[in-house]
Amino acid sequence: MPLAGQVVGDGVRLVRPVGRGSHSLVYFAVDRTGQPCAVKIFPAHLLGYADREYQHGHHLDHPRLVRVMARTTVDDQPALISTLARGEVLFGRYSQRPAAAAERRPFLLTLVHLLDALGYLHSLGLVHRDIKPENVIVEDDGRAKLVDYDLSGPAFEAFSTPTRMGTAAFQSPEAARGEPLGPESDLYGVGVLLGWGLYGALPDPEDPQPLTPDPLGALHLSLTRPERHERPADAAQVRQELLRLAGLPY
């Protein structure tokens, strides 16, 4: 049965798919009053991911984060209704590369908003654990929201066995080892995105990137140090350092 046109939850009508992640399919939808929202649908066997996202997303209240408003089902699959993040995923939005040269102010605003979102999450004792371009939705002017909390959880949460969290290209070394993760691991992902913006490509261990004359190069190196205790762990301080180095007044 086609999903578009179905009414779920408290009068929410599915309109069209707008994204697909590793764990879910996201639909643009409208509620009974005509207000736009998003419906994230999980396969039945990934109920645990839906539970985790609802647990950690339903109480969030920050302009740079989507908020999970309700749980529901779609064709017997677990689903979540959330506020809508408008725009494109980060890599899609910044098609001219390197983004920090081609569209410097919008790109840096995107990073500022990402750091705002992380600062709020970290203040609640939570870490996102999956900072990557697909989870940063960017509008034309660079405004951004952080989405997807199905891997999120308490900082330094320990599991019964080592559990690798996140997406390989953006994982901190400790995430790749399956260690408990703290704020510095989320900020490592920000560092990878900053490096992509400066160089126009993700790092290649076999072909190290040359030092850049851009003043933001120092922040990139600081955020991506291999040893977690040598990295910044305060998103607000990183935000201020980014603005200082870029000479911007946001």
From TrEMBL:
It comes from the Bacteria. Residues 12-250 form the Protein kinase domain. SUPFAM superfamilies: Protein kinase-like (PK-like). Keywords: ATP-binding, Kinase, Nucleotide-binding, Serine/threonine-protein kinase, Transferase. InterPro entries: Kinase-like_dom_sf (IPR011009), Prot_kinase_dom (IPR000719), Protein_kinase_ATP_BS (IPR017441), Ser/Thr_kinase_AS (IPR008271). CDD domains: STKc_PknB_like (cd14014). The keyword Phosphoprotein does not apply. ATP binds at residue 40. One of its GO terms (molecular function) is protein serine/threonine kinase activity. This is Serine/threonine protein kinase. It comes from Deinococcus arcticus. The lineage of its organism: Bacteria, Thermotogati, Deinococcota, Deinococci, Deinococcales.
